[in-house]
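Morning!

As promised:
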Amino acid sequence: MNELFIQIVLGISIASTPLIFAAIGELVVERSGVLNLGLEGMMIVGAITGFAVQFHYNNVVLAVLASIVAGMMLATVFAFLTQVLLTNHVATGLALTLFGLGVSAFWGRSYSKVTVDRIDAINIPGLSDLPVVGPLVFSYDPLFYLSIMAVFLVWYFLNKTKKGLILRAIGDNHDAAHAIGHKVVRYRFLAILFGGAMAGLGGVYLSLVQVPIWVEGMTAGRGWIALALVVFASWQPFKVIVGALIFGGISILQLHAQGYGVNVDAQYLSMLPYLMTIIVLVTLRVRSKSKSDRVMPHCLGKVFHSTQ
Amino acid sequence: MVFLSPILALTLTALSTFFIFFLAGVDGFGAFYVLFIEPLSTQYNFSEMLVKAAPLMMIALGLSVGFRAGVWNIGAEGQYTVGAIVGGAVGLYFYEVEGFWVLPLMSLAAIVGGMLYAGIAAFLRTKFQVNEILVTLMLTYVAILLLSAMVHGPLRDPDGFNFPESRLFHDSATLPIIWEGTRVHIGLALAVIFSFLTYFWIKKHISGMQINISGIAPRAAKFAGFDENKAVWLSLLVSGGLAGLAGLLEAAGPVGQLVPHLPTGYGFTAIIVAFLARLNPLGIIFSSLLIALTYIGGENAQITYDLPSSITSIFQGMLLFYFLACDVLIRHKIIFNFSKNINHE
């Protein structure tokens, strides 16, 4: 029983981590008032880049860095189009997702039959060997701890620093922020790059930690789930972890339930996260009517130009 | 500039594609021929392009109406799926019942199904101000799962050895072919007719104009007394209904039954189609053909050069990138200014 419990917790954590990465990046992007629907594309390009680098150089650090850079490169395209050429966020993001899926499949066709060394869980002598606490707290891969740290840092940045305050102000009212002299485009550009880096990390987690193989389209909609997660979390960093655990948890429980022959219709179970997101959206709105309506960044998805 | 910019975008896409092939070590000219010329050169390829264009055209039409009103229905894929489920279920209910009314009834059911499904987003947006992008997107996943549950359960073929697929639709529930010897079905004709209808509705009718104004200048629309909620409902119902119909046409046309992999991303690709046509209903006829061409070209490239068929998504993505980028030339004029005292931002 104990072992099964530990196994499930580990499974959930591993399933949640890529979601946490992608969602926390997108959260910063959306807080700055930009809607990037290209998460899925940035994630999968991160996944193949990390995988390819790991295959050729067998160097985990290099692979992870490469995936970050790959995510940022795609994000740069998005940022340039939306911030400089003032294109529509929704259309540009969709194009980015398509492009990323296509490029990764094109590039990855020579890697479909190889395996690489995965990123191992850390082993802290003493701590990792403790009963129960050891496997539950001290035996994850380094990226897992990094994802938790990223959430904390984003929370700190957004709520405790001046630059975070400016970023939020830009997301809520870019005209006002511009009028008092803040660099709207610069902040947004950087936020989009951060989003790309995090999405790349989420991607490399899939191809180097979850399963060390490359499969075409292996993100399987996780980018879109991460997008929902940001809303589910009502744009609050720590709630991203809660949401990711729920989303990841359902997929793992499903797996175990099937393994034990419990035949709940898997499809209906899988609908739950999506339906819950909608319900959360509605309840947030219902509540926010009474109090201050500050849940969603007000300028989300709106194109900004300083002469308008 | 209005006509120059799409040509510029196409040229840039072609050049970039060439570059990618070069990097991948594929003969550029040959691949180019396979991708863009071959689909037009044989009757089979050409007809398959028309088959693919039909659902894209129909979905993109509905979406273009919504995008004009600033209503972002990006879950057409879900409405498409629900349309196929509901319409298909009607067809299966009247299994082996002959009659000219079976198909119209199925179509009606699919339209209503798609409308109701998109209506959820309209209801939540007008009642609770919930963002329709997220609701329609979430409901897409629910719809795809629902289709899977249906073909695993209630709609499964009783004689199908437990395969997750429905019975094949019988003759009265299958679309008539309008081009002998190919798979081109009546849906294509319908889509073209709808394009013209939508065009006149948007350009000539008062409610079409209201939709336009609500998107371009929401405040002006309010002052003019246009009901914003009406525009939201209208655009989501139209796009949902058309997507639902497109789903049924695919199920009762080329596919011939309900299968889990019926939704293949037409709902998302149609967004590109709509944007390439700059939301013009008549332009959508052409842009849907263009995008359909990239699908067929991609499939051919897979056979001839062993390239992954997902090469199609690279084009579609790049095409939209360049297209959106070139639009800046329409909206803005480039002025070369060499004096240094300009400080923007």
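The CA atoms of residues 13 and 319 of chain B lie 6 Å apart.

Hope this helps with the figure draft.
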